[in-house]
């Protein structure tokens, strides 16, 4: 005997008859997505507050950053954590600094002031993302270099990078900027003194 919700291979939902395979599809649509980055939630809340307070520089920055996040969700590398959001912010900071220099050279002081205000807002949000410090990175890289040496192999950049970022690597799942780790590895392998 069929269950109360099923009639002859069909499921009754709200007095409608739909094919029995549909509940599987419905579950797919409502699958839980991973939690958004903490900073992303803050950006959305701050956007509302900036609209209420009519804070034009902050509003312009937040709208453009949120638009970039939305656009990135349609690419192969969406913003899915605070570290990728930090990368986006740093890219925008770099672009903004270049714009300030160009406006300054063009003697457009009005645009320089506007861009500097937006730059301060971007830097404020970038500082909110906590990443590993250089001392901790150096310690972990030192351990990686020692493990490569203990295997009796010549220490090469590629070997250390594989142990750092490969599957099950030392930095997997940690809030660390890859460029910073690469810089520290290069410093150590070139024999430069620690800072």
User: What's the CATH H-level homologous superfamily of the largest domain?
Assistant: Uncharacterised protein YqeY/AIM41, N-terminal domain
User: From N to C, what is the helix and strand string?
Assistant: EEEHHHHHHHH
- Strand segment tally: 3
Percent of residues in beta strands? Answer: 5-15%
Measured as a percent range, the helix fraction is 55-70%
CATH class (first level) name of the largest domain:
Mainly Alpha
| CATH-level-2 architecture of the largest domain | Orthogonal Bundle
Overall mean pLDDT stands at 80
Helix tally? Answer: 8
What is the secondary structure topology, with strand pairs?
Elements (H helix, E strand, L loop, with lengths): L5 E2 L2 E4 L2 E4 L2 H8 L8 H16 L2 H17 L9 H24 L3 H19 L6 H17 L6 H9 L12 H13 L5
Helix pairs in contact: 2-3, 3-5, 4-5, 6-7, 6-8
How would you describe this protein?
- It is a single chain.
- The chain is mostly helical and 195 residues long.
- It folds into three domains: 1-31, no CATH class; 38-127, Uncharacterised protein YqeY/AIM41, N-terminal domain (Hypothetical Protein Yqey, Chain: A, domain1); 134-190.
- Helices cover 63% and strands 5% of the residues.
- It has eight helices and three strands.
- The chain has helices at 22-29, 38-53, 56-72, 82-105, 109-127, 134-150, 157-165, 178-190; strands at 6-7, 10-13, 16-19.
- Strands 1-2-3 form a three-stranded antiparallel sheet, with no helix packed on it.
- β2 and β3 (16-19) form a beta hairpin.
- α2 (38-53) runs antiparallel to α3, α4 runs antiparallel to α5 (109-127) and α6 (134-150) packs across α7 (157-165).
- The longest helix has 24 residues, at 82-105.
């Amino acid at each position: 005997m069929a269950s109360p919700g099923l009639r002859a291979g069909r499921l009754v939902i709200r007095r409608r008859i739909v094919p029995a395979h549909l509940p599987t599809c419905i579950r797919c649509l409502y699958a839980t997505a991973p939690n958004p980055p903490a900073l992303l939630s803050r950006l959305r809340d701050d956007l509302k507050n900036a609209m209420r307070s009519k804070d034009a520089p902050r509003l312009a920055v937040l709208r453009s950053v949120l638009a970039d996040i939305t656009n990135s969700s349609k690419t192969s590398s969406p913003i899915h954590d605070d570290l990728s959001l930090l990368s986006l912010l740093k890219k925008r900071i770099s672009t903004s600094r270049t714009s300030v220099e160009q406006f300054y050279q063009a003697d457009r002081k009005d645009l320089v002031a506007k861009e500097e205000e937006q730059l301060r807002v971007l830097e404020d949000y970038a500082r909110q993302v906590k990443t590993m410090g250089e001392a901790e990175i150096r310690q972990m890289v030192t351990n990686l270099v020692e493990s490569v040496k203990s295997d009796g192999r010549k220490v090469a950049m590629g070997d250390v990078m594989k142990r750092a970022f490969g599957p099950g690597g030392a930095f997997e799942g940690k809030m660390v900027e890859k460029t910073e780790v690469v810089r520290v590895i290069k410093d150590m392998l070139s024999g430069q003194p620690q800072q």
